[in-house]
């Protein structure tokens, strides 16, 4: 900011929309819908995403997702340029998803459809048991 005033530099006008929000999570596409998986560190977001990709779904971004507004009601998510095509999975390291699963396993950007938060299992939050197992609401 100050350097641009000192050197009289005009900011460059970019055709690419600027990110309005960064989110910590994994952004995947399942059946054409953009799903953001969030949760605490170490909860298993990347492991879930890796399993989804193995089953034919697509990765947009792992660990950090950039979101920008397309219009008043639409957020578009994409990977930061340094993190495109890669995932970091505990005990496996950094994986190049494009090399492992092919070109169809990666998408550049997608509209956000749903946010899923992973939480650790706690007995007090368990569903009440019925005579035949668990009751689903």
Structural account:
- The protein has 137 residues and is mainly beta.
- The chain has three helices and nine strands, in the order αββαββββαβββ.
- The chain has helices spanning 2-6, 45-54, 97-101, and strands at 21-30, 33-39, 58-71, 74-78, 86-89, 93-96, 109-118, 129-130, 133-134.
- The strands form three sheets. The chain has a five-stranded mixed beta barrel with strand order 1-2-7-4-3. Strands 5-6 form a two-stranded antiparallel ribbon.
- Mean pLDDT is 82; it is low at 1-14.
Side-by-side strand order of the widest sheet = 1-2-7-4-3
Give the terminus-to-terminus CA distance: 54 Å
Mean pLDDT, all residues: 82
| H/I helix tally | 3
Q: Describe the main β-sheet briefly.
A: 5 strands, mixed, barrel
Counted beta strands: 9
Q: Topology as H/E string?
A: HEEHEEEEHEEE
Apparent shape: globular
Strand percentage: 35-45%
What is the compact description of this entry?
This protein has 137 residues and is mostly beta strands. Helix content is 15%, strand content 42%.
Looking at this protein, list some descriptive labels:
single chain, 137 residues, mainly beta, five-stranded mixed beta barrel, two-stranded antiparallel sheet, globular, disordered N terminus
Task: Please write out the topology.
Elements: H1 2-6, E1 21-30, E2 33-39, H2 45-54, E3 58-71, E4 74-78, E5 86-89, E6 93-96, H3 97-101, E7 109-118, E8 129-130, E9 133-134
Parallel strand pairs: 2-7
Antiparallel strand pairs: 1-2, 1-3, 3-4, 4-7, 5-6, 8-9
